[in-house]
Design brief:
Elements lengths: L1 E4 L8 E4 L13 H52 L3 E5 L15 E6 L13 E6 L5 E4 L5 E4 L10 E7 L6 E6 L7
Antiparallel strand pairs: 1-2, 3-4, 3-7, 4-5, 6-8, 8-9
């Protein structure tokens, strides 16, 4: 399209040419596109975040169960290897067996040379597991210690250790220790 500008007679008229090409698409985001994107992300986050918490709870439970079962296997094998009684007991200070509390605060393992089922200062600690005040609790009824005989067996009846998550009460796992000293 031509636009003519008339001069005052001193200069010839000037013509400006306006290029009428189609507009190019914008490469940025509009405010509407940005708001829609944020809405979709917040809805997806509202669905995913609670599920993610459940996954974390399951992993914490699985970790505690696996650590406990590994300790049971280790205690049994140590009793057989040493040919002596090995005690695994609840401990909150990594030195002595605890009279109160739960397995979630930790446990220790020692060779019970005098067969009194308590750790004396002259009895070496074989293993210590440092627990925590996390959301997983381990209940065992009234059993505060596990005795592995020299042949790997545990006297008494089968023992059940229940693992619970405080935020997800429906997520419960159990470990059963048989008289043969093998957990399942």
């Amino acid at each position: 399209m031509d636009i003519a500008v008339a001069g005052r007679g001193l200069l010839p008229p000037v013509r400006f040419l306006i290029n009428e090409q189609p507009r190019q698409a914008s490469s940025g985001l509009s405010l509407i596109e940005l708001l829609i994107t944020l809405a979709v992300i917040s809805i997806a986050g509202g669905v995913v975040i609670p599920a993610f918490g459940s996954i974390i709870a399951e992993n914490r439970l699985a970790t505690q169960v696996n650590d406990f079962v590994s300790s049971l296997h280790f205690g049994r094998s140590e009793a057989i290897r040493r040919g002596a009684r090995v005690i695994m007991c609840q401990s909150d200070n990594s030195q002595d067996c605890a009279a109160l509390g739960g397995w979630q605060y930790g446990w220790l393992m020692f060779a019970d040379s005098n067969r009194n089922r308590r750790r004396d200062r002259d009895e070496a600690i074989i293993m210590v597991y440092q627990g925590n005040d996390g959301p997983v609790t381990i209940a065992s009824g009234r059993r505060r210690r596990i005795v592995f005989q020299a042949v790997g067996t545990t006297p008494g009846s089968n023992a059940t250790y229940t693992f619970c998550h405080s935020s997800y009460p429906g997520k419960v796992r159990a470990v059963i220790l048989s008289n043969t000293g093998r957990p399942r």
